[in-house]
Amino acid sequence: MEFIGFLVVAGIVYFLYQKGLVKNVRFPMIKIGFITNHLKNNQLRLRYKKFNGISNHVFVVGTSQQVQFDYDVAVETGSVELTFRQRRNVIFQKEFHDSEKGSFSFTSSQRSCSLLVVGKHTKGNCHVEFDKVDEEIAN
Question: Does residue 5 surpass a pLDDT of 50?
């Protein structure tokens, strides 16, 4: 009976995914050679030989802080999407089909934020880092 319940739930999730109502579900979940290093709460390094799925990471930035966020994404095959948010507010969202470096800054409204990494049959690596910007330097 438990197996039938599991199949029903999996069937519903798959149906909702096909209709586009569930966006952060990836079938099948593949993480081959997936290595995560979350360093000192302000850096994240991911390496993967084959990645199809999601990986969520939380950072503590502090409230009302000016934050500089740097990313370096290397894509060999497939694509990877980075979504940086505080609660429900999406601060940055981009899908990468090629390697790219960049940065953005924002003022935090919450103590913590999350980075959602969605791999779409991809191979490569991703390095993200954030720094709190001193207001004296910014002015």
Answer: yes
